[in-house]
Amino acid sequence: KSVRTALVIGTLTTLVMMPFAVALGIAAGYLGGWVDDAVQYVYTVLNAIPGVLLIAAAVLMMQVVIDTHPQWFDTAAERSDARLLALCFILGITSWTGLARLLRGETLKLRELEYVQAARAFGVRTPAILRRHILPNLMHIVLIALVMDFSGLVLAEAVLSYVGIGVDPSTISFGTMINMARAELAREPMVWWS
């Protein structure tokens, strides 16, 4: 079950993160100007705050909301599922910056290539240029970054669950399993060495 939880978290978080990263990275790189400045400012501020602290603060605020409104959930399973979905959303919102920075840099390069300038000179509209020329040439970066980020997101969930602020304690995950093993080791240390 912990593998299922890890796959759910990795997949849902990736699905939340990808639209933000792709849209903001391409917009910043292609449009430039104040859009580029705004996107750079946002991801610089997000990267300046330590990720674990930002995620922990957001998860604790979400946990307070869930605990103060028990009438929203009929069962404990619904409450733990809501906490899992909220954790995926929080991880996705806070982890789009690296991919957006990569896509911005590549889009800056692609927009100066001859075929993009020729399309612009022929009067092709910006959405069509982005859809036909820019996005297909960025997909290799998107796929590689998503595969690389997947394991990092699973690790982030395990760390948060180990500390006690990740998934609901009733949900089985790698972090809760490690935390339970730590508690068992503290209770009976001789079991491990005999």
Q: Mind explaining what this structure looks like?
A:
The protein has 194 residues and is an all-alpha fold. The chain has one domain: Orthogonal Bundle (MetI-like fold), CATH 1.10.3720. It is 83% helix and 0% strand. It is built from 9 helices and no strands. Helix 1 packs antiparallel against helix 2, helix 3 runs antiparallel to helix 4 and helix 7 runs parallel beside helix 8.
Helix fraction bin? over 70%
Task: Give the helices and strands as they follow along the chain.
Answer: HHHHHHHHH
Distance between the termini: 29 Å
- Count of domain modules: 1
Q: So how many helices?
A: 9
- CATH top level? Mainly Alpha
Uncertain stretches: none
Please identify which CATH superfamily we are dealing with: MetI-like
Q: What number is the mean pLDDT?
A: 87
How is this fold's topology laid out?
Blueprint: H1 2-31, H2 33-48, H3 51-68, H4 76-94, H5 97-110, H6 114-121, H7 126-163, H8 174-187, H9 190-193
Helix pairs in contact: 1-2, 1-4, 1-5, 1-7, 2-5, 3-4, 5-7, 6-7, 7-8
Characteristics of this structure?
mainly alpha; 194 residues; 9 helices; 83% helix; MetI-like fold
Give a quick summary of the entry:
The chain has nine helices and no strands.
